[in-house]
């Protein structure tokens, strides 16, 4: 059941929540809603049995909105309509980036600013979110952006408060998260990063554009995206993406290598499920030169075992070789992901993105964020691709990654606002507040 | 006196050198010329009095040419003329990059591969030069390039031998050098990096395209470029550049900030001289909205003192803020520098580049690499701008940076092949071998 429907039901049942909920649903007249600080849970609750946990509470603190600090040259005001070259440009868009002082952002920001993502007539504002610890580095990034003289980059602001930085964001690229180091467990990441994405979801809900598109890159990105969207009930859940484009790109490259063709000949590659080692790179629906991969690569053992493992483990191999995670190619894949939403998907092809499963046609569990094949008309929105084949092998793999995501979801129930009540009959009733 | 002229003279005077020199001058039928390894000078000779030092010797070892290792997907051969989309593309160009595993390259390579530098119809081959120590990181970079699926990137090869990697290079972007850390003296860099650039000059001379364009980024870049061109006598000295574009960009930004205009309104900014703290950002010839800067910014004290210092020290400030040197904006400025050679310079404007001073119209000492105002027709070549004003203030600053470069040149005499013989009359005769 979608969140909005439930709100309505709660309204009818519980009049004491009425003013709070109606404020949350007020799309046009927004008030900065800032939750009271909550103590950080040092341990996450991963029990599958019931446990009453506190749902996220959004409280209107009625603090005045504060703009993040503009930086240097970008504090100038100007009228783009006044310039001969700039008056044909589109309206400025606001792009918020978390983890802006990190390595992925350090690649991504300069790509965004250069115009290669949104095109040569799209001026942009970059809103950089960092931490207190990284604030000086954030200033360094802003200085380097100044020194790069990008004509399309018209505003840069920096801040450490998501409620300020996400103000009117048209895009939110959520990169900031503790990165996965060598040997680090996924559960550790869930614990560390979940709180951050709950907070950022609330901030987006309070201050971002109602049509903001959110791409979550910080790992574990599927579950972080779920936490984020659950904490932003006024923004359509469909607007939230978890980045699996790097996995798709890697899968294309490995299929091309095996087939002895260049990577531009590979299409229709889906990454199913979680951006983790359970991800399922789909060779059943993929094509090489328009021909099904299985007709081109006859080595089924390679496809079922080595290929999948190669894609799943590519990140780890790179960390070993390079000594750090793959910032540059991750940034490239974020660019690819954005471009795929703002330009029409080529005829007959599709792209992979981790999106909300509500109403999916594949029988995947509802109410998680799962990578699936998508097509876009280039309007920022997407639709799920219907004409895909799912055989027993693929189904079994999808089930495994689905199970992982459901387990992750249970681990972060305290952050998504799910309260489970165990009845004596051990039937579980699940309420979404 | 140019090197080529001297070779001819030596030929006539010394027949024992004839076969060696004529091989060096054979443009069309090239043989891989590899010098015998020379002991590394642990201390540099910086005496201005005479000292006989060994000139660089190029010896034909007649080793077979070896191609650097192609990487993964890029080992495939393909016929670009066979594809519907690719048959209208230009001929593949070879771009060699030294220090390819470093941070500047990590930004630059992905910009080159994306097509934003050479355009959407220019396929490229990237030839990555690293060191034995960085070889695994180099593989990591190649893997990330694979995973980025850039359609225009058709070849990637990696190697640690400049004689292999520079083979047929159309562009050589020489980034690799020990970077200047906080508090490091410029003299330390001269010592450490000079040998590298002498060797790379020899390698370019032996195997690169006769029309290769070389951009030296590794510091001290002016003197490194001088060393490099002196060791590549068969390549026109005019083809060597030392990067001062980042300084130009920084100067534009600071002028814009002071004038309260956006940086796209600032033009005709020259950086004169050395890419060091003696560099001279020229506000005399610079314009804001087409008006001389001095008519827009009346604060002469700021222009003469603060502005110059701000530009000169920007790099140091950034190192402090950011904890490392400014890789991203340096890469952007390399892109700017290349673009300025392959696209016509906008009417009335110019760009700064550290180029060989032979025949310069400004009265700057001959036979050094000095940043000066250049214009290009977009053919890869450039001409020096003649209509610039030089007043007493500017002249005195230019003299200071010239003096620094002449001193640097003396310090690397053992690497440029200059032998000084002190006569009893203390008249100094300078021979260029």
Automatic annotation (TrEMBL), chains A, B:
<dbReference type="GO" id="GO:0046554">
    <property type="term" value="F:L-malate dehydrogenase (NADP+) activity"/>
</dbReference>
<keyword id="KW-0809">Transit peptide</keyword>
<comment type="similarity">
    <text>Belongs to the LDH/MDH superfamily. MDH type 2 family.</text>
</comment>
<dbReference type="InterPro" id="IPR015955">
    <property type="entry name" value="Lactate_DH/Glyco_Ohase_4_C"/>
</dbReference>
<feature type="domain" description="Lactate/malate dehydrogenase N-terminal">
    <location>
        <begin position="94"/>
        <end position="241"/>
    </location>
</feature>
<dbReference type="InterPro" id="IPR001236">
    <property type="entry name" value="Lactate/malate_DH_N"/>
</dbReference>
<keyword id="KW-1015">Disulfide bond</keyword>
<comment type="subunit">
    <text>Homodimer.</text>
</comment>
<protein>
    <recommendedName>
        <fullName>Malate dehydrogenase [NADP], chloroplastic</fullName>
        <ecNumber>1.1.1.82</ecNumber>
    </recommendedName>
</protein>
<dbReference type="InterPro" id="IPR010945">
    <property type="entry name" value="Malate_DH_type2"/>
</dbReference>
<keyword id="KW-0521">NADP</keyword>
<dbReference type="GO" id="GO:0006108">
    <property type="term" value="P:malate metabolic process"/>
</dbReference>
<keyword id="KW-0934">Plastid</keyword>
<feature type="domain" description="Lactate/malate dehydrogenase C-terminal">
    <location>
        <begin position="244"/>
        <end position="414"/>
    </location>
</feature>
<dbReference type="GO" id="GO:0009507">
    <property type="term" value="C:chloroplast"/>
</dbReference>
<dbReference type="InterPro" id="IPR036291">
    <property type="entry name" value="NAD(P)-bd_dom_sf"/>
</dbReference>
<keyword id="KW-0560">Oxidoreductase</keyword>
<dbReference type="InterPro" id="IPR011273">
    <property type="entry name" value="Malate_DH_NADP-dep_pln"/>
</dbReference>
<keyword id="KW-0150">Chloroplast</keyword>
<dbReference type="Pfam" id="PF02866">
    <property type="entry name" value="Ldh_1_C"/>
</dbReference>
<dbReference type="InterPro" id="IPR001252">
    <property type="entry name" value="Malate_DH_AS"/>
</dbReference>
<dbReference type="Pfam" id="PF00056">
    <property type="entry name" value="Ldh_1_N"/>
</dbReference>
<dbReference type="InterPro" id="IPR022383">
    <property type="entry name" value="Lactate/malate_DH_C"/>
</dbReference>
